[in-house]
Design goal:
The chain has about 475 residues and is an alpha+beta fold. It is about 35% helix and about 20% strand. It has twelve helices and 14 strands. Strands 4, 5, 6, 7, 8, 9 and 10 form a seven-stranded antiparallel beta sheet that branches. Helix 2 packs antiparallel against helix 4, helix 2 packs across helix 9 and helix 6 runs antiparallel to helix 7.
């Protein structure tokens, strides 16, 4: 509103951007995977199926991937996961300089996120959720020199060429294509710069085969909406419904800051002081005895109203984001809603956390299915790619189960007491207790138990029961 006024330059210097969105989107991700979930096949830890599942999770750093994806999904509204079988590292530069890739590296199943702006699904006829194909397409910029593609080129004789790479996913098949494109400039119709291109002739992809069989009778791409409705496949972000509120908070803070800056050194008035008037940093108005005393409007009430509106705006943001303000450890608005630590039992604490828990569960519902699918596909393509390969031990892919945690502190004593009351028996064996409390697997828990038994034997020793029978066993 003030950008075309004389105040514009001052306001630009005073502009304050409060990135509340970052906090509101990071907290659900923390609660989702801050306590790492467990990935289970339902088979023993020493089974090859469980070992391979754990290895796939570990090698792909899956928990960190899900944390990053959940944050980005919050402001985009959509995320995408892709599974493929390849080398973990890119060795193309070694091949460029004539060096072979290391002998000890092998291809492996890779799960990674894909920029959803590069994903273009094709809907099945008559459906708004099912797909007949999923295309991943992106523009690649290549610098050329004297007609030869260079990795790094400098100088005025270089030329930029643009290519459209298309990775078309069909059930069980991936089709690769590459097109030459020409830049058409930038489209700003929607208020953001969008590069546009004209698609030209199809060119060689540089791959050994443009048709790859995956061994999986499904798409190796999974779309993950942040929040969904039944009328479209696209997701809804957690920020788009609050954009005007977040902008209003920034504007209100700027206005308050401007008022305080403007009136931090108000104009003074009094008798004519001559050269001594310079001791005042602001303006000084000399007033004679017969002259009317000048005055100016005070801003106290306006500031009070501005701060009150700021409290309402902050409260609306936290309400629309389903996030209690005290969840961040401090509160800044008048309607603080308590600190969240006034209850001692876990049931009361969970009741206080109910809004954010419900939000995390909603996010988890979309993520759980997509992650389990990707883990299953990773096992399938690993066996398919290594069929007949010497030294590879094949196994039966297992659709996994993910045990998520809500991130809320649990009262273990209270939980144990409830179990004891309900069953009137011990409800946890030693191995399971160690596995759960120390977050270790079965083999590690067994090792710990063996060490405990060894300690007891060393301290107490072993006693032959026959020494208690003085008459050789007869009594």
């Amino acid at each position: 509103m003030l950008k075309d006024t004389p105040h514009a330059k001052q306001l630009a210097k005073l502009y304050i951007a409060v990135n509340l969105a970052d906090l509101l989107l990071t907290k659900p991700a923390d609660l989702l995977v801050g306590e790492p979930p467990s990935y289970e096949t339902g088979l023993p830890d020493d089974s090859i199926e469980q070992k391979r599942l754990s290895s796939i999770v570990e090698e792909n750093d899956l928990n960190q991937l899900l944390h990053e994806m959940t944050i980005a999904n919050g402001y985009r509204g959509d995320a995408a996961l892709k599974v493929y079988y390849a080398y973990r590292n890119d060795f193309s530069e070694l091949e460029t300089i004539g060096l072979p890739k290391p002998d000890d590296v092998k291809p492996e199943p890779i799960i990674e996120s894909v920029d959803p702006s590069q994903v273009f699904p094709e809907l099945s006829r008559g459906s708004k959720k099912r797909f007949k194909a999923i295309n991943i397409a992106w523009i690649e910029t290549v610098e050329t020199k004297a007609g030869v593609i260079q990795s790094f080129t400098t100088g005025s004789d270089t030329k930029k060429e643009y290519f459209l790479n298309v990775e078309r996913h069909l059930p069980g098949v991936i089709v690769y294509k590459r097109y030459k494109v020409e830049s058409k400039g930038v489209d700003t119709t929607y208020g953001v710069p969008i590069p546009t291109y004209t698609i030209g002739e199809e060119v060689d992809t540089g791959r050994e085969s443009n048709l790859v069989m995956t061994g999986v009778s499904d798409f190796l791409v999974r779309l993950v909406p942040y929040k969904s409705v039944d009328e479209r496949w696209q997701g809804i972000s957690g920020i788009e419904k609050m954009e005007s509120l977040l902008a209003a908070i920034n504007d209100r803070l700027v206005q308050i800051d401007y008022i305080l800056w403007k009136h931090s050194d108000p104009t003074a008035y009094g008798p004519d002081l001559g050269e001594d008037e310079t001791r005042f940093s602001g303006r000084y108005i000399p007033v004679g005895k017969e002259e009317q005393t000048p005055g100016y409007m005070t801003w106290n009430s306006q500031l009070d109203g501005a701060f009150k509106e700021l409290d309402y705006l902050l409260g609306l943001v936290y309400q629309k984001s389903e996030t209690p303000q005290w969840l961040f450890g401090t509160t800044i608005s008048q309607d603080k809603g308590g600190t969240g630590t006034s209850h001692t039992d876990s049931g009361a604490i969970k009741a206080r956390f109910m809004p954010i828990i419900s939000k995390v569960k909603r996010i988890r519902n979309h993520l759980d299915k997509a992650v389990r699918d990707c883990l299953y596909f990773a096992q399938v393509i690993e066996n398919y790619a290594n069929e007949g390969v010497e030294g590879f031990v094949s196994y039966e892919p297992v659709y996994p189960t993910i045990h998520w945690k809500d991130g809320i502190p649990r009262d273990e004593k209270e939980l144990a007491e409830i179990m004891q009351i309900r069953t009137n028996k011990p409800t946890l064996d030693v191995q399971s207790a160690i596995k759960k409390l120390d977050e270790v697997n079965d083999m590690q828990a067994k090792t710990i138990i063996e060490r405990i038994d060894a300690d007891e034997t060393r301290v107490n020793g072993t006693v032959d029961a026959s020494i208690f029978n003085t008459d050789g066993g007869a009594k």
